[in-house]
Please model this.
Amino acid sequence: MKILLATDGSAHSKGAVEEVANRPFPVNTKVHIVSVYQRMSLINALGPMGVSNEYSAEIDRNVFKATEKITENAAKILHAKNPTLIVTTMVIEGSPKSAILKEAETFGADLIVVGSSGHGALEGFLLGSVSQAVALHAKCSVEIVRK
Model:
């Protein structure tokens, strides 16, 4: 079985990590943990002038490192609770909706697991736009986990 676990470090994403970690999966189950970030330089292109390229690049590096830490922490949880899983991690730059769907297809996922909402303004109130888009457009099964 191949599972793509998408996480952004939010409470619902952490719930998704715990859900996968606590399940008894068949031997040789592969879990591919992905986290997606958007580059600051893309935001600056649309925003107000005056932010230096160096400052923008530093923010991009920091966001990448923070995103990488999210995937590493998720992998540690999976290894600790279910050492039989074959776990890989990946940080992807881009739009979370499309990046998750594309990576699931590339990976050949049988299942995508996501939290019900991420770091949005209405967290916990409505189904998040990323989880909703993944559920609507994925070519495999999708599980949406609430905290």
